[in-house]
Each structure stands twice: as structure tokens, then as C-alpha cells.
Specification:
The chain is an alpha+beta fold. The chain has three domains: about 80 residues, Orthogonal Bundle (Arc Repressor Mutant, subunit A), CATH 1.10.10.10; about 100 residues, Periplasmic binding protein-like II (D-Maltodextrin-Binding Protein, domain 2, 3-Layer(aba) Sandwich), CATH 3.40.190.10; about 100 residues, D-Maltodextrin-Binding Protein, domain 2 (3-Layer(aba) Sandwich), CATH 3.40.190.290. It contains nine helices and 15 strands. A five-stranded mixed sheet has the order 4-3-5-15-6, with helices on one face. Strands 7, 12, 13 and 14 form a four-stranded antiparallel sheet that branches. A hairpin with a 4-residue loop joins strand 1 and strand 2. Helix 1 packs across helix 2, helix 1 packs across helix 4 and helix 2 crosses helix 3. It starts with 14 loop residues before the first helix and ends with a helix.
Length: about 300
């Protein structure tokens, strides 16, 4: 059976006034400290005592003392209130300047090619911000999993997210090593991949990703087969360089190996383009200074 719950109203009302009176043993000095009238302090304490159901102070014309109930309340309320004040100070600090822990959900392939140069310079520029990079191949729910922002290919970012470009658009390239191509004829069309060892990626949902192409202006997906299945692009890159088979990889990840001849580009006319890699965040709430600083750092690097 579903239970009904209500939020208790005013549970902390009067606690600050109580602590001030207890500290000064004076309603007048407590009123001066809090910037209110002595009568307002007296009324606040009466309301607090009524809510608790016990007298907290012994009042005479010459002095103010604590009852046993007041002593016990003070012993528990003072450290709790100090913790609340400290928590407010910490939250206020996070809202005032770039500090704290910045958690980013990032595909593993994007770390060396996109993020490493950014993170190094950002950490140097903002030493009070700690950056945590969590490698994730899946489509992460930022709010549910406690991330400030994520990194993702543009086509996989939801429309209600705020996106900041990290890379130009690029293509997914089919590549093979010279050693592999010395043993097999290079594919000239998509159908030729049936005769090749193709390295595959398993998505976070467990499905094997088909290879994607563009043929005569139309998107085409083809199921390939081969000796290796991996969960990240860097593993496929290493296997392709070692001649295990052909791989379809993000252009920036394979660029260095292509440039130095360890890999050759194949089926270039059929390569599929992607909008590029983006930093994204929800944008539904106020962006804390730590994330705002990182966003501005990204934008400065792009200029």
C-alpha cells in the first residue's frame, strides 16, 4: 500500500536564534548579532519551544540560562547547524569560482585524440578543479549518473542537450595494414568485404555494430565478419596495425597510422561522414563555474 509522506515545515526555524541566545546568554546581544529586535528574538524562541514541547531557557530579569532540555538541544543542534553552514559555504564556493570535481563521460577513443591536450592545459589553467574522466562506450544519462558533461559523436546527442564542438566533421575510414593487404586483394566495393577479415565493435547494448557507408548518396549498412570483436576503437586500431584484419575507424584516431604508412585507407568513395565530436551538457540548470570554465577553455582552443 502506498504511503503518504509530507515534508516537515519549519524544522530549522528558530535554531540560529536559539544558538545565538545560548552563546551570549542574552536575548539583547543575540538580537544585535542577528540584526533584529529583542522582541523578535523572544517571539522566535517561544515558537521554537512550543514546537519542541519543552522550555529551552530559564529567564530572569538579570540573566538567561539553559534548561536541561536546552542543554541537550544545544549539544545536538550546534554541531548540526555548523555543518549546515559549512555545507552552504562549500556550495556557495562551487557557485562562485571554478573549483571542485568535474566529471566527464567520454568514449575511450576520444581521450587520446581529443581530450588529452585539452585536459593538460585546463588543469594547468584551473588548478582548483579536479577532472575525472570516465571512459564509457554507452549513451550515458548525465544527470542520473552524476556527470557534469559528456563527449559524444554529434549524431548521438539528444536535441535538448547543449553541444559544444570539439572536432571538425570527419569520416569513418576502412583501413588495413600493408602486411594484411599483401596477402589479400584490396576491396574495391562494399560487397568485396565478404572476402575479408573484418574487425568488429560490440556496442554497449550487446549488439555487433554493422559497418556504415554511403553508396550513391544513400546510407548503407553492411554486416561483416572476422576474427576479432572489441568494445573500443583503440583495440581495433591496434589489431588493424598488426594485420589481424580490416577495421572501420574514426578518421582522427587512425590519422597518425595512416600518415606514417602503418595503415592504408580503403573504400574511400564510400566513407561515411559524421558531424564530429562534441562536448554536451543538459543546460537545464545553472552551469557551475567549473563546467563554464571548461567550456570557455574548449572555445578558446578552437579560436
Amino acid at each position: 500500500m502506498k504511503q503518504n509522506f509530507t515534508v516537515r515545515q519549519g524544522a530549522l526555524d528558530g535554531v540560529e536564534a536559539f544558538l545565538s541566545v545560548a552563546r551570549h546568554r542574552s536575548f539583547r546581544r543575540a538580537a544585535a548579532e542577528l540584526g533584529v529586535t529583542p522582541s523578535a528574538i523572544s517571539q522566535t524562541i517561544r515558537v521554537l519551544e512550543a514546537r519542541i514541547g519543552a522550555a529551552l531557557f530559564v529567564r530572569t530579569t538579570r540573566s538567561v540560562g539553559l534548561t536541561e532540555a536546552g542543554e541537550r538541544f544545544l549539544a545536538r543542534a550546534r554541531p548540526a547547524f555548523e555543518e549546515l553552514v559549512a555545507a552552504s559555504d562549500v556550495a556557495r564556493d562551487l557557485g562562485a569560482r571554478p573549483t571542485g570535481l568535474l566529471r566527464l563521460a567520454v568514449p575511450g577513443a576520444a581521450v587520446p585524440t581529443v581530450l588529452e591536450p585539452l585536459i593538460a592545459s585546463f588543469c594547468e589553467a584551473y588548478p582548483e578543479v579536479e577532472v575525472e574522466i570516465v571512459a564509457s562506450a554507452g549513451l550515458v544519462d548525465l544527470a542520473a549518473e552524476g556527470f557534469d558533461a559528456g563527449v559524444r559523436l554529434g549524431q548521438f546527442i539528444e536535441a535538448d542537450m547543449v553541444a559544444i564542438r570539439l572536432t571538425p566533421p570527419f569520416r569513418f575510414e576502412v583501413v588495413g595494414s600493408p602486411d594484411y593487404l599483401a596477402k589479400r586483394k584490396a576491396p574495391a566495393c562494399i560487397d568485396d568485404l565478404r572476402d575479408h577479415a573484418c574487425l568488429r565493435m560490440r556496442r554497449s547494448n550487446g549488439a555487433l555494430a554493422p559497418w556504415s557507408f554511403v553508396d550513391d548518396g544513400k546510407p548503407v549498412e553492411t554486416v561483416v565478419a572476422g576474427p576479432l570483436i572489441a568494445h573500443d576503437y583503440p583495440t581495433l586500431l591496434g589489431a588493424a596495425i598488426r594485420g589481424v584484419g580490416l577495421a572501420q575507424l574514426p578518421g582522427p584516431l587512425a590519422a597518425q597510422a595512416i600518415a606514417d604508412g602503418r595503415l592504408q585507407v580503403l573504400l574511400a568513395p564510400f566513407a561515411q561522414a559524421t558531424p564530429g565530436v562534441f562536448l554536451f551538457h543538459s543546460g537545464k540548470h545553472q552551469v557551475l563555474p567549473k563546467l563554464r570554465a571548461f567550456i570557455e577553455h574548449v572555445k578558446q582552443r578552437e579560436r
